[in-house]
Amino acid sequence: MTERVNRLIFGLCLIAFLFLEWDFAVLAIPTILLFEAMTNLRIPRLISRLNYATDGPDICIDENPLCKFDFEAERALRYTLSFIICMGFIFFDQTLWFLPYIIGLNLLLAGITGICPLLMLFRKAGFK
Asked: Where are the domains of the chain?
């Protein structure tokens, strides 16, 4: 399982749960994202360890010369997504009700195309 497939699944689930008005299922998504961000135990990595007994194929990624922060962009993405979903679903549900729908659509499109604008923004900002 790759990060791309993970985004696709999270996007589909978030949109389906919002459409079906399953509040506890919607709240499970930012909970999972926060857990993954805090512990760095990501679902795709765990599945790769179970399938291949490693973290997946060894891919040499060149270090970003613009790297300013010693923090992964994937972790920052997960923190940001969980924060935005909570803002739109829990705290300001009457005024910012559209935020979880936008996040779900963006995750779905990022899973389909492989291009995540927020992740690209974090990498340009200097995250690993």
From this structure: 3-55+63-125
